[in-house]
Every structure is written in structure tokens, then in C-alpha cells.
Amino acid sequence: MSFAFKLLSGEKKLKDCELLFDEKYSINRKKLEEMLAVVEKAKETGLVVNEDLCIGCANCVVSCPVHVEKDPYNAAVGRGIEMEEPILRIEDGVVKVINISLCRRYGKERTLCVVCRENCPTDAIAFVEEI
User: Fold this and answer.
1) Domains in the chain: how many in total?
2) d(CA 77, CA 74)
């Protein structure tokens, strides 16, 4: 159980468990590798963006509480953002993570904000603990 939590947090890698590389565990190891592929794409906050599902609506961008607070004359009224380095931005028709360090879920004082995910009509945004 301890090893599993360390896998999810990124403290450990699958290769750190030599037992899993025994041939009799090969099926289980392959399942774990598939499951962990999602975790490896996640940011420190647990944020995962599935660009294949994103339609570029920008709901996540304009509803982000950090964007609203830092850019009240644009993001807060739904015009988009004027911040140089926002958390999220639409590029080439899909959402991109630009500056995750501003996210409320980042760092020691983090909170479990899910506003971007809640406002995504296509479920293109998820958090690792929800997958």
C-alpha cells in the first residue's frame, strides 16, 4: 500500500519494485503500466488535460478563480485573459497548461479547487485522484 501511494505521488517508479518484473507478474505489471501512463502525464497538481476531448471553448480559462482574481477586467467578465503567463490558455484550438505554479492546487498551501474541471463540457480536464 505504501509503495502504491508513492507510485501515484511520483516518489517511486514501477522499476523500483523488482518483484513486479518476475515473469509470473507480467500481466499485472502491464496493467499497472497502462494505469500509470495517465499519472505520468499529470502535473504536480494532478491535472491531466486530454487534448483529444478539448473543443477550445475556454470555459476553464475564464472560470479559473486565479485568473478571475488576477485579471478582473477580462477573465472575470468572460472576455478571455490578458495575463502574460496564465495557468491555462487556448492554443491551436485546445487548452494548454502554461503556468501550473499559479494553480490553487500547487505548493504547500494548496486547496482542492476543481473549477476548471467542473466547467469543462467535454471532460477534457481531470485530476489524477479522480481517474
Assistant:
1) 2
2) 6
User: In 3-state terms, what secondary structure has residue 47?
Assistant: strand
**Residue-wise pLDDT tens digits, 63-112:** 999 998 888 888 777 777 888 889 999 999 999 988 888 888 877 777 88
Q: Residue 113, Cβ neighbours under 10 Å: how many?
A: 17
Domain that holds residue 16: 2-41
Question: What are residue 47's phi and psi, to 5 degrees?
Answer: -70, 130
The C-alpha atoms of residue 89 and residue 35 are separated, in whole angstroms, by 27
Q: Are residues 77 and 19 in the same domain?
A: no
| This model's pTM is above 0.70 | no
Instruction: Specify whether 117 is located in the same domain as 92.
Output: yes
